[in-house]
Structures are given as structure tokens and as C-alpha cells.
């Protein structure tokens, strides 16, 4: 069920029929080398959530693309809001989802650059009592078997951005937007310009390895591979959504935590 396509009465019913569960794919607007659209992350993420919702009913929040992507600022088409605003807007969106009746918010991260942001938000949820819980979906839930199946589909070793897997999935979802001819056989290896500082994490470490925002070899991509990879993602997400809807542990534990915070010093 897509949030934006429901009428107000149907929306109220959807909150009840899904057990108060809503899913939001958090993406970005950024360069995906020369062959993929700027909206690759949020478009693929939203599509995945919609496909999962067809199998396990859940309300899907409209496409969300104001993620953390400052590493993409040198490239045309990138939208990178100020850091504090990015955090504040996303947390306000979660609050609005809750205000509309959902107490289980599933966050699907569709952009690697969002992980630090989302993990921070997950932690600061404990700063004050909230009427909802955040459930953040990892790439494969809960078994390694799907990861092995994923790797069996692929021919290349380096992945991470505009690569074989991301290009294949976009070919499956939006074939008319993929300009494979612009690749001209090009592929990339990490430049390792910060190798002398590893295993530390440095500012601009992603850019230092991939200054053209391209990691791997997209020339090996195909729509057929994308369909297989997408199905693995959908199956994983369906399983996670089902587990969240059945969960009865998180809210009591959060209440225990908040109550103990309130009792401190009394």
C-alpha cells in the first residue's frame, strides 16, 4: 500500500490492517557514474519496498531522497542538505509517520552513505520517550544463505556504487533509464590513496578511492542478474517486515528503558 495513493479513510484502515507498520526507503540524489540516473538509490529502494508490500501488507512511505550525500557534492545533480537539517528533517518525518498512527517504523537504507546517519538516529531515539520504535533492515535478514546466493549471481569482485549489482538491479527496475553505452568498457579499482592510514576511517575516504563515483565493473551487468538479485532483496525484506509485525518485545523493552530514565533521581 502506497501512502500517497490511499484516501484518508483507506489510510486509517491501512494503519489498523498492517498492525501499525510503515516502511520508508531512505535514499539520495547523487551521481552514479555516467550510466545510471541520479535517483538510482531512492528509486530502487522504493521499488523494493513496494514489491515487498505486495507480499506482506505494510504502508510504504513516499519516495524519500534527502539522505546524507556530501561526498557527492562535486558532481552535477547532487542534493546534499546541510547536515543538521538532514538529521532534523528525517527525524521529523519519523515523528509524522508516528503521529499518523504507526508505532512500528521500518527503515530500509537504500544508500550506503546513510549508514552513519541512520545509526546515529537509532541511538538518539533513546534521548526521549517516543511512541514508536525504529526497525532498521540489514541487507539480508537473517541468514548468510542469501548472501551466498547473491554472490553466486555476480561475476565481479568490487562493488559499492554504480557497479555490476546496482546496475543490474536498475536494469531490471528502470531499463529505459540505464545508459550502458556510456560505459565504453570502463571499470574501476580503488585508488587506495589513504592506504597508509588504514585501518582508520578518514574524511573523504570514499572520494579518495573512487573520485569518479564509480566502484567496480558495470559492464558485466544485465537485467537477468538484476531480477535475481532483486528477488533476493524482496524475499529478505518480506521476512523482516513479517518479523517486525509479529514482534512483541521491542516496545516493552523501550518502556522499561524510558521508565527507568524517569525514575532516576526520584
In short:
With 266 residues, the protein is an alpha/beta fold. The protein has helices at residues 8-17, 40-55, 83-99, 115-124, 145-153, 164-173, 205-209, 223-246, 250-263, and strands spanning 21-26, 59-60, 104-109, 133-137.
3D architecture notes:
The chain is 43% helix and 7% strand. With 266 residues, it is an alpha/beta fold. The chain has a domain at 3-156 and 233-263: Rossmann fold (3-Layer(aba) Sandwich). It has a four-stranded parallel sheet with strand order 2-1-3-4, with helices on both faces. The chain is globular and about 65 Å long. The N and C termini lie far apart (46 Å). The mean pLDDT is 95.
- The CATH H-level superfamily of the domain at 3-156 and 233-263 is Creatininase
Give the N-to-C terminal Cα separation.
Answer: 46 Å
Determine the CATH topology of the domain at 3-156 and 233-263. Rossmann fold
Write down how many β-strands occur, each being a DSSP E stretch of 2 or more residues.
4
Largest sheet: 4 strands, parallel
Output mean pLDDT: 95
Q: Output the number of helix runs.
A: 9
Strand order of the largest sheet: 2-1-3-4
Amino acid at each position: 500500500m502506497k501512502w500517497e495513493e490511499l484516501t484518508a479513510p483507506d489510510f486509517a484502515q491501512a494503519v489498523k490492517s498492517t498492525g501499525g507498520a510503515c516502511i520508508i526507503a531512505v535514499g539520495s540524489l547523487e551521481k552514479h557514474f555516467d550510466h545510471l540516473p541520479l535517483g538510482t538509490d531512492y528509486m530502487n529502494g522504493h521499488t523494493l519496498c513496494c514489491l515487498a508490500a505486495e507480499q506482506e501488507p505494510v504502508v510504504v512511505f513516499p519516495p524519500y531522497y534527502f539522505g546524507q550525500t556530501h561526498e557527492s557534492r562535486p558532481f552535477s545533480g547532487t542534493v546534499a542538505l546541510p547536515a543538521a537539517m538532514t538529521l532534523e528533517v528525517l527525524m521529523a518525518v519519523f515523528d509524522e509517520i508516528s503521529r499518523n498512527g504507526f508505532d512500528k517504523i521500518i527503515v530500509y537504507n537504500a544508500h550506503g552513505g546513510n549508514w552513519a546517519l541512520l545509526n546515529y538516529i537509532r541511538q538518539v531515539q533513546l534521548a526521549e520517550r517516543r511512541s514508536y520504535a525504529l526497525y532498521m533492515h540489514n541487507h539480508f535478514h537473517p541468514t548468510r544463505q542469501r548472501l551466498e546466493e547473491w554472490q553466486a549471481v555476480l561475476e565481479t569482485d568490487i562493488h559499492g556504487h554504480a557497479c555490476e549489482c546496482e546496475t543490474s538491479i536498475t536494469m531490471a527496475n528502470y531499463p529505459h533509464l540505464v545508459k550502458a553505452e556510456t560505459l565504453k568498457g570502463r571499470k574501476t579499482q580503488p585508488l587506495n590513496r589513504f592506504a597508509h592510514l588504514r585501518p582508520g576511517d578518514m574524511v573523504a575516504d570514499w572520494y579518495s578511492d573512487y573520485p569518479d563515483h564509480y566502484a567496480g565493473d558495470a559492464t558485466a551487468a544485465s537485467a537477468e542478474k538484476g531480477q535475481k538479485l532483486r528477488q533476493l532483496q524482496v524475499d529478505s525484506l518480506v521476512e523482516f517486515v513479517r518479523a517486525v509485525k509479529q514482534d512483541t518485545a521491542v516496545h516493552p523493552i523501550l518502556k522499561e528503558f524510558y521508565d527507568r530514565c524517569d525514575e532516576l533521581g526520584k
